[in-house]
Amino acid sequence: MGRMDAARRPGRRGLFGRLATEDRATETDRGGDRPGFEYLATGEVYLDSACQTLRPQPVIDAVQHYYLHDNACGGRVHYDAGRRVDGEVARTRDRMLTVAGLSPRRYACAFTLNTTYGLGLLMSGLPAGRYARIVTTVTEHNAVFLSTIAAARRAGIPRVVLERDEDGRILADDDVLRDAVVVVSAMDNVVGTVTPDLRNLVARVHRVGGIVIVDAAQAAAHALETIRGLDADALCLSAHKMYGPSLGVVVALRELLLSLDPVLVGGGQVSAVSADDFTLLPDPYTRLEPGLQAWAEIIGFGAALDWLGGFRSAAGESLATHEARLAARLHEGLAGLPRLRLLNEAPTPVMSVLPERVDGHRLATFLSRAGIAVRSGSFCAHYWLIERQGLGPLVRFSLGAHNTDADVDRTLEVMTAMMKGL
């Protein structure tokens, strides 16, 4: 096939399928108020970072560099490109442990498909007969809620669903926590409530012989300090919520990983194979990494961690300050709109609303037509939102590093016109 003539190539399409070549030039001419995201088209507002963040240019460059200059398998390799891949993957593991504030002597970093996959692999591989019950809470995302149901069924042990108070604090006595596998989120993905006293909960569980697995997917992106240095047995998170490619990350105690009986076993996990048996490698992370790994994604995640470590907004703000300021403006504007119930009592980077006179999915569609990308539905919190609270489809606005004051202004302008028109 011949190469398409450059003059006939279509322009770059933006988030909503519109040709964005001219918009991109305008954004660049303005000097760019989205450091790392200069490629974004003007006028398109992405507010779905709780699902996945957009990727900054250094991450895109790192993934492209792998495909253009290495494009090789890591692991058990002696040629230069493969050894470079091994070095970058090892660097990403070390960088993740540093970001999490955890010692490589006690913890290891493994990569999976996503947070759900990581949680499932951990729960499926726990040694039989070791734990008395599985404990979770009423507000959990399906990644936790469903994996704990399935694990309790397999193990034939009770599963306890704990309540939370109005501040998100988990209500539990020591008897429930004794010898239990406690699986909880550090930050929910509906209204962004950070679990209070999480460090104290971990200490309590450990005192009575249990373990704690933390769904850190939202916290790693929006409230990193709440999990940094946390003495949990495992943290499960997603690179694609931390400005990296689609990838799951598990940071877990080396002891816990080595105790697992892996449900998926394959190449890259074994040191020897006989006719009827195999010997697992001594590296703890291999317990969760069967087969060929996502080399480009892992390398891209390393670039994302580097980028996050040096992030400053156009105004010189840290990511936490930048998100908090935009969240306060967005929360104030949404709270003042008619015929709209804002579920957040306080601003967070993740805010959900319930429109009174229109279905949430329809409102999300209207917003999309105005160039504003949001998510609608129950956000994988079906039990909490539908069964317990009886809520219909919500609309969620979730902020990220790429968002600007202009994004907030545009969103409130469109929402104000829509809600007044209902």
Can you describe this structure?
- The protein is of the alpha/beta class and 422 residues long.
- The chain contains 14 helices and 15 strands.
- Strand 11 and strand 12 (350-355) form a beta hairpin.
- Helix 4 runs parallel beside helix 5 (142-155).
- The protein is globular.
- The chain starts with 20 loop residues before the first helix and ends with a helix.
CATH class of the largest domain: Alpha Beta
Please provide the count of β strands: 15
Query: What is the strand arrangement across the widest sheet?
Result: 2-8-7-6-5-3-4
Count of discrete domains = 2
Q: What does the overall shape look like?
A: globular
Q: What is the CA-CA span between the terminal residues? A: 53 Å
Instruction: Estimate the mean pLDDT confidence.
Output: 93
CATH domain fold name of the largest domain? Aspartate Aminotransferase, domain 2
The share of residues in helices is 25-40%
**Structure class:** alpha/beta
| Low-pLDDT segments | 1-11, 20-31
**Range of strand content:** 15-25%
By CATH, the superfamily of the largest domain comes out as Type I PLP-dependent aspartate aminotransferase-like (Major domain)
CATH architecture of the largest domain: 3-Layer(aba) Sandwich
User: How many separate helices?
Assistant: 14
Largest sheet: 7 strands, mixed
Q: Taking Cα atoms only, what radius of gyration do you get, to the nearest Å?
A: 23 Å
List the secondary-structure elements in sequence, H or E: HEHHEHEHEHEHEHEEHEEHHEEHEEHEH
